[in-house]
Design goal:
- It is globular, with a radius of gyration of 15 Å.
- The protein is built from 2 helices and 8 strands; from the N terminus they run βαββββαβββ.
- The longest helix has 11 residues, at about 15-25.
- The chain is an alpha/beta fold.
- Strand 3 and strand 4 form a beta hairpin.
- The protein has a 4-stranded mixed sheet, with helices on one face.
- The chain has helices at about 15-25, 70-80, and strands at about 10-15, 30-35, 35-40, 45-50, 60-65, 95, 105-110, 115-120.
Length: about 130
Amino acid sequence: MLKDSKAFSGFSVDDVAAAKAFYADTLGLEVSETNGMLRLHLGGGRETLIYPKPDHVPATYTILNFPVPDIESAVDELESRGVVTEHYDFTDSRGINRRGGTLIAWFKDPAGNILAVLQSAAGAHPGGRD
């Protein structure tokens, strides 16, 4: 029944205007707005819905992963745009996980949702922080 459905994911924010500025201006993604909701137009023709939720609670897991060819360059670019990477006990001074396999750096949107840039090592399966 649903195998041919063009499914998409979504997540909530507490401030649509702040989310639009972050995703469009800071991250440089194509964003459209309809009926008070945002759509991120991502590579490969994928879309993600961002919707307002007054009692929004940030996700405690990675909601969106951006594969990149070079994690160092991606973190440099994010930092130049004012994005601060998250630091955990297993990340280096730049906020990059280098424990083997996929290199990952996490950061948050204005609503506190966790996003990531990741660079896969040869043969590694990219993943997010749960």
